[in-house]
């Protein structure tokens, strides 16, 4: 037996043990204080791989918990789609952790517009029914109906979408393999800025009238 | 305008266009057929980064969808904890995607035993209330009560746990930053094998009686 | 001096030195034979990170050289754009090297259609003038005129394009930060497959007529 | 149809739509502002993976374009070799992008001295003829003549070189799989510093006279 | 011959050569000054991948050498185990280098307590005999006796241990695949903090008495 | 004299050397369904990131232990340097683990020739005294005397060396941040193959006589 109850009940011995163990622990883990986690400090410079780390001495359990997804995003929009996101900029505890989460609410007839992002997405349907799919670089479309409890993986970067194909609202969660997935919606990317219509026409083959109509709806110019 | 309705209604022109576009598309994306995704083929050799890829010609939408999490795991066990996992070995579409998912069901009084894995975990509470936490390499414990809709991040490798702290069953999903997180439960790792009790005693400081008691409960020998 | 002319001119001594050095070299580098490079063998299984390696004993200098880019791609298509690609599937010497190259030829009025891929792209203009740009995830468009010798970086995944804005043909090379960048053209992804028009309408906000028109031109169905 | 021309021509409705879409867009992409790209700010601290990011609010299209390669590097030197580099320190838009580019000009009889760097290099010959090659860790040399339009891949770290083997000047571009490849020339590394000649002799087997001669030419001491 | 002894003995020519070569060298490697290495500056912000880099102009050979492991760690503790660590926080030259080292001294009867860390560990026995092992995620234990000169690899994250099984003190070195491996000792993680005993009981199945006994020895509360 | 004909012409001694080397090169192993480890199976195809995994069902503790470093490498060579390597090809348990180890033995006056490899190296001196150093891409040399117990880090790819600067043999261990570091010795790379002398002259500035002399010693041709 390494420690007898007797000796461990000896206060002097306990103090000695604690002091020694503290040395042991310090020497073993001091290097890791800042790197077990790196809660983002958005006031410091950021680098290619994320935000700078918040002072570990000021980190508490609250830094690792986020409640923002308990509220549905606003679905009163063209897509009848509400998104609540937990990315590193909203939830800095994710900084460097390689994961983030989005809550998607879809009204009846709603859709997550076709989009892309740097990393994989894994979606789970909590309520309702959707048709979800993606298109690969050979232009093959893979899509399927997902019911409550079904999950689907969307490979990195490939264009994908989800549509409420049922008669009730949809609640789903999407997990991403990065704390900042970089979500880009094709339609808003094309029509909600100052890209000249003629340029868009050349690079998409869309008709001028269609382009101008969507620019008007989405707030684009030129 | 690049193509007039007139010309595009010319069958010969359409054939020409399709032929030309097919050349264009082939030359642009043929290299990517096997690498937009790499659905695991568990009958082929695996490597450090995952399974070999299933023949892309045989891949269908079904390869990217999994329904196994719609069923709760068995909770009739010591921890009153049921886990349904969607890792690459159950859901080969995850191979190379860097994401996986587990459904956790906790009866009243149940717990996810303290465990570790290679990658980050992001958990979301769907039903019930839990106390979740992790311990860093300075032995500081970070734990907090999570209610429905709350999420918490657990850094890579650090020991962590979840306990049903409410009066109703808990349903939660945990997303992992790898298709094979490598989940290791401390208690079963120590007591459910043939590690000699004396060895366990030396490397844990646990009493011999405690070790033998848990070995008996969990099926360990020596 | 380590080796005197005298001793090194002793044939027996030279044999001994060579024998001994060969042992030294073998023990130092035998581990690396297969891993200095991994020329792709497309007949073996592939994995998430690339093709299996060709037998190193059969590798020659030819495996590391490719001449396919000396020929312009066919520009007789809707976009007046020809692409010659050197990805790992055409040039297996690139397997595992993290780089690939495409030659882009643009006729007057031609364009590289808006597209995306998993990795960064760095383009250099050899002949002619283009307007090149990308759109970030806040829908801000960054575009500029590039002349001979100018280079531009396109961040991973973000939608981008190049248009011949001059009065002469354009020759440009694009380098990618992966041997299989996974190039996806938005227009062909949407309209050159069997995605139902109604689905496309919901996820893009495009008009039904526009969708059907482009499906007809590009060979899509439904 | 999601939006009728009628309703979209209603100014109040448009304002409403824009407001709602702006919410949608904000919630979807705010996390990514700093991470779609990370233009290097060389005045801030740098980390192992690159420079800190320039304030995204100050980023313009100019940050992603570089014209420095339109000018040939000075070839009036021992190797008759001129290099113009576009690495992150000259072209901060490359920071975190994993790509960089060098223009190589070789006079008749010129050579890119044998060198090494951390990452792969992919070279394309624009004008002239070269003999290019590398040596693997088994001391096998792989070298070949490259003509206009040919490309060659050089694996990470392995010693390699390019020599103008023709009767005209050579223009070539080399793409690297990192924004800071870390190019090291063997000859200047050995002879252009204060490494004691005896030390160089021991670790290279070169003769003392040869070492001192090259130190004199290249500016080394000791 | 590129440079004749004659010309190189011409002072003017030498100056010219040095000037030209300096241009060449500058243009080739200026981008890499900060990135050949990134000696950690612990006074600047850190990020997910490590510390900020010390000003390269102030870096000397001393930054890359560390003598702290020549002294044995204190073995007067419960485990009769002394650890001297060379992690990036003690030896900032390791920052970004992906390696670190620990010296382990074990008295007769001593043990490295069961622990885990983010990365692989490769151990070599310099003096003495140990029993070393790890447990995989299937609860299978792999352990073996190691004598002087033997090495053993411990996969990332998996629980592992080393015990002095001989009659003499043990000296061993452990190399880690990261400059900050994040070493976590199971016993001190569980019993040297304020985790409520009831919580520990639920997530480990340990008896309340055992938990309280070890908390007392190790300095835990609650 | 470097090699006494007497000792090295002793057939028994040569047989012993070959036998020991064959032991170093011949040892095989396995991996796990959940990828806890991936012991290399050298009979299956390899990929860019390593060997295929051995059937996990056949894995034993022996797969993770290697004794080959308990034997010194042969130092009867030009550099008076013996290397015993534990790379994945000799010790397949390292496959995918990101670590490897080499034992270096240096006779009095011996040296590890200047070399490079893909990854960082961390060396520890067990016996004797060395001068160790590296050169950065600005041609600055960082070198220092290391005594027993000192460690030094060598950044990835940069040219580096170790020289026995004492009056006793040196024993040191070098840990690498990859299971296959890809060690390349500059001198043998240049002079132990069929690279034409004129080519070497152009890319190194070495004199023709020096090149031919070293080719003769090291077994190069042309």
Automatic annotation (TrEMBL), chains A, B, C, D, E, F:
Residues annotated for Mn(2+) binding in this entry: 115, 117, 121, 160
Q: Which family does it belong to?
A: Belongs to the germin family.
Protein name from the UniProt record: Germin-like protein
The region annotated as signal peptide is: 1-30
Q: Which Pfam family, any one, appears in the UniProt record?
A: Cupin_1
Q: Which residues bind oxalate?
A: 117, 121
This protein's record includes keyword Metal-binding: yes
Where does it live in the cell? Answer: Secreted, Extracellular space, Apoplast
Query: Can you cite an annotated GO cellular component?
Result: apoplast
**Positions of disulphide bridges:** 38-53
Recall the GO molecular function terms of this protein's record.
Answer: manganese ion binding
Domain Cupin type-1, chain residue ranges per copy: 67-212
SUPFAM superfamilies, alphabetized = RmlC-like cupins
Supply the alphabetized keyword list: Apoplast, Disulfide bond, Manganese, Metal-binding, Secreted, Signal
């Amino acid at each position: 037996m390494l420690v007898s109850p007797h000796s461990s009940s000896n206060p002097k011995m306990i103090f000695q043990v604690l002091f020694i163990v503290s040395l042991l622990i310090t020497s073993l883990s001091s290097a890791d204080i800042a790197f077990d986690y790196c809660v983002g400090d958005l006031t410091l410079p950021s680098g290619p791989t994320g935000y700078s780390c918040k002072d570990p001495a000021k980190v508490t359990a609250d830094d690792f918990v986020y409640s923002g997804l308990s509220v549905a995003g606003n679905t009163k929009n063209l897509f009848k789609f509400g998104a609540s996101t937990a990315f590193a900029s909203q939830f800095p505890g994710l900084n460097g952790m390689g994961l983030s989460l989005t809550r998607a609410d879809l009204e009846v007839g709603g859709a997550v517009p076709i989009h892309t992002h740097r990393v994989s997405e894994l979606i789970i349907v909590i309520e309702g029914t959707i048709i979800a799919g993606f298109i690969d670089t050979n232009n093959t479309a893979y899509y399927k109906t997902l019911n409550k409890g079904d999950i689907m993986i969307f490979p990195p970067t490939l264009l994908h979408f989800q549509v409420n194909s049922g008669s009730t609202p949809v609640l789903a969660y999407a997990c991403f393999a990065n704390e900042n997935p970089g979500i880009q919606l094709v339609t808003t990317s094309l029509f909600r800025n100052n890209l000249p219509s003629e340029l868009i026409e050349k690079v998409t083959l869309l008709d001028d009238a269609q382009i101008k109509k969507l620019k008007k709806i989405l707030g684009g110019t030129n």
